[in-house]
Design a protein that fits this description.
The complex is a heterotrimer.
Chain A lengths: L2 H24 L3 H24 L8 H17 L5 H23 L4 H21 L1 H4 L5 E2 L7 E3 L2 E3 L4 H24 L1 H8 L4 H6 L4 H27 L1 E2 L6 H14 L5 H16 L7 H15 L7 H13 L1
Antiparallel strand pairs in A: 1-4, 2-3
Helix pairs in contact in A: 1-7, 2-7, 2-10, 2-11, 2-12, 3-4, 3-5, 3-10, 4-10, 7-8, 7-10, 11-12
Chain B lengths: L7 E12 L2 E12 L3 E5 L6 H9 L6 E6 L2 E2 L5 H6 L2 E3 L12 H8 L8 H6 L2 H21 L14 H14 L4 E5 L7 H16 L3 E5 L3 H7 L2 E6 L2 E6 L1 H6 L1 H10 L1
Parallel strand pairs in B: 3-8, 3-9, 6-7, 7-8
Antiparallel strand pairs in B: 1-2, 1-4, 4-5, 9-10
Helix pairs in contact in B: 3-6, 5-6
Chain C lengths: L1 H31 L6 H17 L9 H28 L6 H23 L13 E4 L2 E4 H23 L1 H11 L1 H6 L4 H26 L8 H14 L4 H22 L1 H18 L10
Antiparallel strand pairs in C: 1-2
Helix pairs in contact in C: 1-5, 1-8, 1-9, 1-10, 2-3, 2-8, 2-9, 3-8, 5-6, 5-8, 6-8, 9-10, 9-11, 10-11
The chains are: A mainly alpha, B alpha/beta, C mainly alpha.
């Protein structure tokens, strides 16, 4: 909203993007690339959470949408023989349509109830995946999801048998997500969405159709979950019900809150920090949720705007000190 | 009251609202003509804000109809009714507290931006042009209401009086045909009240019909062309200010409460 | 026919336990307007508490198993109530009024509680030694004494709760706050005390549920997840803040789960429960016994 902030955000974004592009050329370790890919995919998901979060709703169905995206993409490529390059956007679209159907009844509902229902929706999806063996492979899920088919660009033949091309693929999709979200933030849609939690009554009285706007945010968030799901399925080459549960939705929510929702840097920073922390603590895996929980509570107490509000907070602390 | 059909803007027919066994509003009938300022008064608990909520769609009536500009708006959503041109302000200061004054009024322009979400997303040259026009419209409204100097202040930082004015500005941006004001001068000092009365007169001169609920009798007598009086959810009187002042039932209703 | 009655009995027990958990959630939500996502973890603590006191004998308790078990349950209730009150004081009080913050904080709490329990006790299911031996038989139907105890205890506790809410000073104060917080404020009620009490009782109810279920099945760190989800459905069905709604909703959900589970399998049971929920929300978003705002 303030110009100075936007310039800084842009600068940091450009820095991150440039680093993202250059990094694999410097550091080719496949495990490192693997972590980065995970961070990219989770960032996309967290962006989806964020756009609904700014309207004041915690969407725990995102985990379920992720799964649906993964399964759709797996099914389209494995059973219908479609190319990944088509199933990627198709999965996004399919999940968006699913979200439209699911969102319409549930977005009328008050905040707390909404969260509970979205948990339930993720669970219902899980049950469907486990029961419908022919389509979704039952409790084991679908194995042998093909990697993206090779592409030929500018004389280069890129095959996806190694991690590096996938890294750039995920980065590109993330970049697309960031650009769209950035544009939305500054557009009438974004501004209106942000105003909703401040006063729904006022919005209604000046003609803003609240349900419609919330639904749009919900569907957009789901679209990106669908894209992320497709990336997920073709990276891990399998889709299983255990990966797509409400716990994942919870984690996405935490990354969004800890990172902050004010600018597009929030989800990126949140995921970068917390997933790296996850890695660092891999020896002490069982303690990770505790650390996360404590960070979350700390943020809520002392830095409610998330990590990206740190500069502002420091700034106002310094001003206070000067007085 | 004997106006022709095409001058009647708002018609309330047999409007009733029951909460459990309690009738908050009972069989209310009145009408508003274009260009009028109509006052809705009555002792505390008479049901005035309930009537506003019923008309603007924030509450569903138990019975009755609300007809605006010939269209039946009963049972419709508030945003739908607002789109038809029937809007209201609130008794409490309901604002976008985390936004500036200017941003608040810009949000009020929602219904009349002149461009759709898609075009806005793509930020076409046409959209950018239109946005400049909207900025100018907002600044005009702010100048008109006296809030121009405060345009970059956060809404939550404004004084109570200025917040009330801001609430009206936001609704003005939405270009209402009929504006319902819910206790616009509540909590104001004498000077702020005079400013508000002047503002409302100016708004009316621009052609906007006004329906106003107020407790301050001086303000009502000063502004209104006609007055409707409620008590215990029933209409007990309707007429010109002078008639109402002398009306025995009205006097009884107010004195009786003490 | 036999299966029908057996299912009915199982359903009754399941419903009653669910009602305990849901009542706890209902009290916390109705009085404090807090949605406690960690509520299932208090249920879990109840199970572990009873296990620690009764099975692991962390405290020297004397007497026949049944007596020791009941004592364990009571000790657990008190301990968990205490923990709940501390949580309210330290964590939740700060965010009073901001529903979104409360939701997120209780998420964090849920993670911490689950992970801590996991670290301390490990992931495997802990079996309970049986406090009550044997079965009650009625013709062809057997119901284990443990289940019978669970059913009776649940009913007794619900009756006590009813008595407390309707006949005691603090209970009535809580109802007043639940119905009209502003009026209660004007009347000078001590909100902090009432909230702490509500939290303590709410958590204790959840804990009893877990403690009763422990001997019948087992305890593990994740045992609270499913019950709290079902409790949410019950609350939504019954309308927030309505104990009667919690009871009726509890039976609807519990019986649906039991019957659909027996005849169609657990997957369908879970779906059935949520489909009821979605259907109700479409028809009456404030719940069956809820009120218009």
């Amino acid at each position: 909203m303030k110009n100075k902030n936007t310039t800084w955000t842009t600068r940091i974004l450009i820095f991150l993007i440039a680093s993202g592009i250059l990094l694999p050329m410097v550091h080719k370790d496949p495990y490192f690339l693997h972590i980065c890919i995970i961070i990219f995919i989770w960032s996309i998901l967290t962006f989806g959470i964020r756009i609904v979060l700014i309207t004041g709703h915690l969407n725990a169905a995102q985990g379920g949408f992720l799964g649906m995206g993964a399964y759709f993409s797996a099914i389209l490529t494995m059973k219908l023989g479609w190319s990944f390059w088509i199933s990627l956007p198709a999965s996004g679209l399919a999940v968006a349509i699913l979200a439209m159907i699911v969102g319409y009844p549930i977005l009328r509902v008050k905040g707390a109830y909404f969260v509970m229902i979205t948990f339930g929706i993720t669970e219902v999806f899980r049950q469907i995946w486990m029961m419908w063996k022919d389509m979704f492979g039952g409790p084991q899920g679908l194995f042998g999801v093909p990697k993206p088919s090779p592409i030929d660009i500018a004389g280069l033949h890129i095959s996806f048998s190694s991690k590096m091309p996938f890294y750039y693929l995920a980065l590109v999709v993330l970049l697309f997500t960031v650009l769209v979200m950035r544009r939305l933030d500054n557009s009438r849609l974004g501004i209106t969405l942000r105003s909703l939690p401040q006063s729904e009554m006022l919005s209604e009285s000046i003609g803003i159709p609240i349900l419609l706007y919330k639904l749009i945010a919900f569907v957009i968030g789901a679209f990106f979950a669908g894209l992320a799901g497709s990336l997920w399925a073709h990276y891990f080459t399998y889709a299983s019900p255990d990966d797509f549960n409400w716990t994942n939705s919870l984690f996405m929510l935490m990354y969004a809150v800890i990172g902050g929702t004010q600018t597009v840097l929030g989800p990126i920073l949140g995921c970068m920090l917390l997933l790296s922390l996850d890695e660092v603590l891999i020896e002490f895996q069982e303690y990770t949720p505790i650390v996360l929980g404590l960070i979350l509570i700390f943020i809520l107490f002392y830095l409610p705007g998330g990590l990206i509000s740190l500069p502002q907070k420091m700034g106002s602390l310094l001003k206070w000190r000067k007085k | 009251m004997t106006a022709g059909e095409n001058r009647t803007l708002l018609e309330i027919k047999g409007l009733s609202k029951n909460f459990g066994g309690l009738a908050a509003v009972a069989d209310l009938n009145f009408a508003t003509e274009k260009g009028e300022i109509v006052g809705l008064i009555g002792p505390n608990g008479a049901g005035k804000t309930t009537v506003f909520n019923l008309i603007s769609g924030f509450l569903k009536p138990t019975q009755g109809q609300v007809i605006f500009g010939g269209v039946n708006v009963t049972q419709k959503k508030p945003s739908w009714i607002a789109k038809k041109g029937l809007m209201r302000t609130f008794q409490a200061n309901v604002l976008y507290n985390e936004n500036t004054v200017m941003q608040n009024v810009l949000l009020g322009c929602h219904l009349h931006t002149g461009f759709g979400l898609m075009r806005d997303f793509l930020n076409t040259a046409e959209t950018q042009q239109r946005k400049k026009q909207l900025d100018e419209k907002v600044m005009e409204i702010l100048k008109f209401s006296g809030l121009y100097e405060l345009r970059d202040e956060l809404a939550s930082n404004l004084s109570h009086g200025h917040q009330r004015i801001l609430g009206i500005c936001i609704t003005l941006a939405a270009e209402p045909q009929l504006l319902m004001l819910d206790e616009p001068v509540s909590g104001m000092n004498a000077e702020e009240k005079n400013n508000m009365v002047e503002l409302i007169k100016q708004i009316n001169l621009k052609g906007i019909t006004v329906l106003i609920v107020e407790h301050d009798m001086k303000v009502i007598m000063n502004l209104c062309h006609r007055i409707v009086v409620l008590n215990f959810g029933l209409k007990i009187a309707e007429g010109l200010p002078e008639e109402i002042q002398a009306h025995p039932k009205v006097i009884e209703a107010y004195l009786g409460v003490e | 026919m036999d299966m029908l009655i057996q299912t009915f009995i199982n359903g009754t027990m399941g419903s009653l336990i669910l009602i305990l958990v849901a009542s706890g959630l209902c009290m916390i939500f109705g009085i404090m307007h807090i949605v406690n996502f960690a509520h299932g973890e208090f249920y879990m603590l109840g199970g572990f508490g009873a296990w620690l006191f009764f099975d692991q004998e962390v405290l020297p308790l004397f007497g026949p198993p049944a007596f020791r078990y009941i004592l364990s349950v009571i000790l657990t209730m008190v301990a968990v109530a205490f923990i709940g009150i501390i949580v309210e004081r330290v964590l939740l009080r700060r965010f009073r009024g901001s529903l979104q913050s409360i939701l997120v904080v209780t998420f964090g709490l849920m993670l911490i509680m689950q992970a801590s329990t996991l670290i301390i006790f490990g992931v495997t299911d802990k079996a309970f030694s049986s406090p009550f031996q044997g079965y009650l038989s009625l013709g062809n139907f057997h119901i284990s004494q443990e289940r019978m105890a669970a059913i009776i205890t649940s009913i007794v506790i619900m009756l006590m709760l009813y008595f407390f809410i309707n006949k005691t000073k603090y209970g009535k104060a809580m109802r007043a706050v639940a119905q009209d917080a502003e009026a209660a404020l004007v009347l000078g009620m001590n909100f902090n005390l009432i909230f702490s009490l509500a939290m303590g009782i709410g958590c204790a109810l959840a804990a009893v549920g877990g403690a009763l279920v422990g001997p019948i099945f087992y305890v593990n760190p994740y045992m609270g997840v499913a019950p709290v989800m079902k409790a949410f459905v019950v609350i939504i069905l019954g309308g927030a803040g309505s104990l009667l709604g919690a009871v009726i909703g509890g039976f609807v959900v519990g019986m649906t789960e039991a019957f659909v589970s027996t005849y169609f399998g657990t997957h369908f049971a879970i779906m059935a429960v949520f489909l009821i929920l979605i259907f109700i929300l479409l028809v009456k978003p404030t719940g069956v016994f809820g009120h218009e705002e």
